[in-house]
Amino acid sequence: MTRGKQKIEAQKRNAEKNQKQKGSQLEARAVGLKISCPICKALLANQNQLGDHYASKHPKEKPPAESS
């Protein structure tokens, strides 16, 4: 068991360690999701996911052409 100065220093280190944020998951998600479905505005990461999305959610519609 620590006493005195060691205890205070340990508490400060733990408080700093627990306080630091490494970034928001929402920010990371926004960076990764670049394509959106024009019909329902769902965000997708790539063109393959857009094709799968159209096949399952909008089967009567054709997916938009791939824009480079």
Number of strands: 2
Strand content: 5-15%
Main β sheet profile: 2 strands, antiparallel
Mean pLDDT: 85
* Uncertain residue segments: none
Domain C2H2-type: 35-63
Pfam family, one: SERF-like_N
Subcellular location: Cytoplasm; Nucleus
InterPro entries: MBS1/2-like, SERF-like_N, ZNF706/At2g23090_sf, Znf_C2H2_type
Helix and strand arrangement:
Elements: H1 4-19, H2 25-32, E1 35-36, E2 43-44, H3 47-57
Antiparallel strand pairs: 1-2
What does this structure look like?
The protein is mainly alpha-helical and 68 residues long. The chain has a domain at 23-61. The chain has 3 helices and 2 strands, in the order ααββα. The chain has a two-stranded antiparallel ribbon with strand order 1-2. It is rod-shaped. The model has no long low-confidence stretch (mean pLDDT 85). It is found in: Cytoplasm; Nucleus. One of its GO terms (cellular component) is cytoplasm. It holds the Pfam family SERF-like_N. Residues 1-19 have a biased composition (Basic and acidic residues).
